[in-house]
């Protein structure tokens, strides 16, 4: 009798152990197969929406000093980085040829003036002879015409002398403004040829403490840019320093390069320490909107769609309707709130729940939440990666090994 009861007890105990093991195995198996989610906490912070572009630093006033005459550079009075004033002599072209032209013009003028004096005397004499009826009216008219021709010749020679003197004066190259010589393109002994166009001898920047950036903004972004907006930019020479400026002009002339249309946006920059130099490439961020102490979420949360949501009116990894602000793009969007759907993981666990929200601006990484979420909520941003192989689990029914 005791043996029978003991046998039943052992059978019952074995069954309980088997069922308990099966339950544990099933629970672990279910836990392993349940999707694991990556989440991010809704926090408050500052969002800055910006348009990015590149441009070149240039002086506000940049004058190219050239030569209107040809000749050989005889002397140089300025070099790179020389401070010059308005009217200061920069260079001297050999004046020998132009001095000879002046002397020749002076001689021709003196000859014309002598001819005029003789023609004047002859005209006066002819007038007296005509009064005494010793010459004809035709002879008198001829004398007057000769005098007028001599007067015209004198004027021509005077103009030629003035031109020769002007060319001689142009042998001396002077600075048209106060500033700094940033480029010198000639050396002593070099021949300057100005037959077709004026060669550039010097480039003078008026004031390097005031500079500007000519940034080329794409046509898709130019609508968000306005005069007066703040600008942050960096240059390769100082990668750890951020410089500041503001938009002062948006030029309407389109610039097309490889079928890409852009517009020159002029940005005023203060350069009191002269760290910035002409020609530097600036990486520009034009601040089009800024929000302080606003709720924000990663843009990945706007793109996430759980597997069970696919085929129910939404794309698995996308959104319905037009792409809204913050969907992974740094391109500025309208300030008008947009309706979006994100998935929130309940605090007590379970499946992510869809929540309709309204979004504001985006900086390309995070997006402003206008309504629909609270600070501290956990939004789902993606699925955790599942290992390709897992540890073997012993089945309580077969005693063999099973891989998950």
What is the helix tally?
A: 4
Kindly report the spatial arrangement of strands forming the biggest sheet.
2-11-14-13-12-15
Counting DSSP E segments of at least 2 residues, the number of strands comes to 21
Q: Tell the overall outline.
A: rod-shaped
In short:
By secondary structure, this protein is an alpha+beta fold. It has four helices and 21 strands. The chain has four domains: 104 residues, Beta Barrel (conserved putative lor/sdh protein from methanococcus maripaludis s2 fold); 95 residues, Elongation Factor Tu (Ef-tu), domain 3, CATH 2.40.30; 67 residues, RNA polymerase II/Efflux pump adaptor protein, barrel-sandwich hybrid domain (OB fold (Dihydrolipoamide Acetyltransferase, E2P)), CATH 2.40.50.100; 76 residues, Helix hairpin bin (Helix Hairpins, Orthogonal Bundle).
């Amino acid at each position: 009798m005791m043996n029978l009861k003991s046998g039943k007890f052992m059978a019952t105990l074995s069954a309980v152990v088997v069922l308990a093991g099966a339950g544990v195995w099933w629970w672990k198996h279910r836990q392993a197969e349940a999707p694991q989610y990556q989440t991010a906490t809704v926090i408050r912070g500052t969002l800055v929406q910006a348009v990015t572009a590149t441009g070149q630093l240039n002086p506000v006033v940049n004058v190219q000093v050239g030569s209107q005459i040809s000749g050989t550079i005889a002397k140089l009075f300025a070099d790179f980085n020389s401070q010059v004033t308005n009217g200061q002599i920069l260079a001297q072209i050999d004046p020998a040829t132009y001095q000879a032209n002046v002397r020749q013009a002076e001689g021709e003028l003196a000859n014309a003036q002598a001819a005029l004096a003789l023609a004047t005397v002859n005209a006066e004499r002819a007038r007296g002879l005509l009064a005494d009826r010793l010459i004809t009216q035709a002879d008198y008219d001829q004398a007057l015409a000769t005098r007028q021709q001599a007067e015209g010749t004198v004027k021509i020679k005077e103009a030629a002398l003035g031109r020769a003197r002007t060319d001689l004066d142009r042998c001396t190259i002077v600075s048209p403004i106060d500033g700094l010589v940033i480029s010198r393109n000639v050396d002593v002994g070099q021949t300057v040829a100005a037959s077709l166009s004026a060669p550039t001898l010097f480039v003078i920047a008026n004031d390097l403490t005031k500079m500007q950036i000519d940034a080329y903004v794409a046509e898709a972004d130019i609508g968000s840019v306005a005069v007066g907006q703040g600008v942050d930019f960096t240059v390769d020479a100082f990668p750890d320093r951020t410089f500041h400026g503001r938009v002062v002009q948006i030029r309407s002339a389109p610039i097309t390069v490889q079928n890409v249309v852009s517009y020159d946006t002029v940005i005023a920059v203060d350069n009191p320490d002269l760290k910035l130099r002409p020609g530097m490439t600036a990486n520009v961020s034009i601040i089009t909107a800024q929000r302080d102490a606003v709720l924000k979420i990663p843009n990945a949360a706007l793109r996430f769609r759980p597997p069970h949501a696919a085929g129910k009116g939404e794309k698995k990894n996308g959104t319905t309707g037009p792409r809204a602000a913050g969907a992974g793009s740094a391109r500025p969007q309208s300030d008008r709130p947009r309706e979006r759907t994100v998935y929130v993981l309940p605090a007590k666990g379970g499946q992510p729940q869809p929540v309709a929200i309204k979004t504001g601006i985006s900086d390309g990484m995070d997006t402003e939440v206008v309504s629909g979420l609270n600070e501290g909520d956990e939004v789902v941003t993606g699925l955790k990666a599942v290992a390709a192989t897992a540890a073997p689990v012993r089945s309580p029914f077969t005693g063999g090994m099973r891989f998950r």
